[in-house]
UniProtKB/TrEMBL annotation:
Its EC number is 3.2.1.91. This is cellulose 1,4-beta-cellobiosidase (non-reducing end). Keywords: Carbohydrate metabolism, Cellulose degradation, Glycosidase, Hydrolase, Polysaccharide degradation, Signal. SUPFAM superfamilies: Concanavalin A-like lectins/glucanases. Belongs to the glycosyl hydrolase 7 (cellulase C) family.
Amino acid sequence: MFKLKNKEFTFTTDVSGLPCGLNGALYFVAMDEDGGKAKHPLSKPGAKYGMGYCDAQCPHDMKFIEGLANCEGWKPQDNDENSGNGKYGTCCAEMDIWEANSQATAYTVHACSKTGATKWSGNDCGDDDNRYNGICDKDGCDYNSWRLGNQTFFGPGLIVDSSKPVTVVTQFITSNNQDSGELVEVRRLYVQNNKVIQNTVTNIQGIKNADSITDSFCDDTKSVFGDTNDYKAKGAMAGFSKSIDPGVVLVRSLWDDHSVNMLWLDSTYPTDSNKPGASRGPCAITSGKPSDVESQSASASVKFSDIRFGPIDSTYSK
């Protein structure tokens, strides 16, 4: 389990093999260390065998939740032969350290109004039109340099060159610069070619200059972009800080998006919008269809290596 407050998490990644529509993700979730084994007698296999996963999307595709088969109301997904959805979802706070392909990247804080891994259904999961009535902030508060007005920062041949490996540093700053403090800021910097690269500063009219995720940054972006401020409604940074106190579990994945083709990460979304914040990356609005991605990029891969964790400014060379 990782205790993030007053610490930094660093890793090296290579996303050069990921085209539009794919997401090589590294993130933390506030699941139980043992996968719910101690709380739920039927969860005997525990985390070792995949029990207990949760995240801020309250996923309904989990085969088992709290040790019980999620078979009630199970329906196969129309566009994904390998998945389906049951009645129940399993929800918890989530820190997306890295969601990226070779064209775009974002890091995102997802707060929840309840702590720990919890089982819910329907409105409590924020299903369908009740997205903002659930217990977790599904949208999250994200920092995407392209979306925030810096379109020459991340990508092949750019300042952070996604055609080459890059070291990603994420810092969790507390109110008193101690482990005991409340989380108030999530900072980002990069190291590439032995050079430290500071994160971009926002370049959108109406958003105060910022290069990290804070409550003020989130309030500004939600207001200017016209997004529902579910981050604030679900407890903002203080709520997220409480959720991660017991420790969080590291997750890595490579996935395509059977809902909206990853356009929220690397293209324009909503696709018919020209409002501030709609442009999130350079990919075409027709890109990212799983059938295309899976047939055209079957050998796509992402590399994560050299994972380090420690006090602020201790895990990379300045």
